Automatic annotation (TrEMBL):
Organism: Muraenolepis orangiensis
Protein name: G-protein coupled receptors family 1 profile domain-containing protein
Pfam families in alphabetical order: 7tm_1
Molecular function terms from GO: G protein-coupled receptor activity
Transmembrane segments: 20-46, 58-77, 97-116, 137-157, 184-202, 223-247
Residues in G-protein coupled receptors family 1 profile domain copies: 37-284
Keyword annotations: G-protein coupled receptor, Membrane, Receptor, Transducer, Transmembrane, Transmembrane helix
Amino acid sequence: MTNSIDLPPDHCNTTNPITYQVLSGLMIGEFVFGLPLNLSVLYIFLFRFKFWRTNSVFLFNIVVADFLLMVCLPAKAYNYQHGVRRSENKGLCATMLFMLFLNRGASIAFLTTLSIDRYFNVVHLGKRNCVKFLRKSPLISLLIWFFLLPLTVPTMVTTFECCNSLGRANETLFHNITDTFREVVFFTQIVIPFVILVYCTVRIVDRLRKKTVGEKTKLRRAVFLVTSVMVVFSVCFLPCAIARAVLLAVRMLEIQDAEVMVVQVYDGLMVLSYIDCLLDPLLYCFCCTGFRDAYLEAFCPAALLKSMPNFDSRTTNTHTGHTVNVPLEQK
């Protein structure tokens, strides 16, 4: 392993070639498995499920965010294979950072919005609220994408990508302010949604305990959804946020020997965070059985027939507009 004193000032070269070759291979694996999965999900939402008719606008935006994030992985893997943590082309580097953090932020935002929607449907069922209206229109989705743009711009600098933020030599007041702002944006996009998810999960679980037996099936599905989203957060996003906090502390304390190792851990956990593009499609099935049935009908019809032994082939699917095999007993 290269000693930290040999690192360039911007810390953008990899310190352990073997580690970054492994991380590159992991990203290639995520891309190979994730691209066809996300393409198939995108196909179902556009042509078989018709999300605009089924109040699934939030789910569709998660699909778009995951797909755009997935197509960035080959370039990131290429950089790691060549011993650099970001592209040496400044324009390409800024574009990659913009795409990675915009779509990662969008995935987090829409997963959180989906959980909030379930919270209102369960905890405040029967009450008039704006969430029921907004989930039927693209307005809130457009607003989320719009507000994410200015939050993504601060990350489009090489100092952020190379973890060369705070604690730099000869740092000016301007550097301190801009670096602090970038870090606040990074942590806010993870910590605040996680707090919201915990609150929604606790309230929905509490509601489940108070409901009668006849109403518990729908509530259990809602609990399963918000719990699954929280698990995705806990596996994909929280670890990299914790690692970055440790990295910033190490940098400010000028513990150079530890910094080399912590940087590698942070990069590894960032690569792990991209696996949410593989986990999110599972959430689509948990959220909407209509999507699950449309997906099985398109790609695994035998599995659909096995799970639905009682079906009527003359029934028309109201979600897709196509005639499909659906159970005689409605869910």
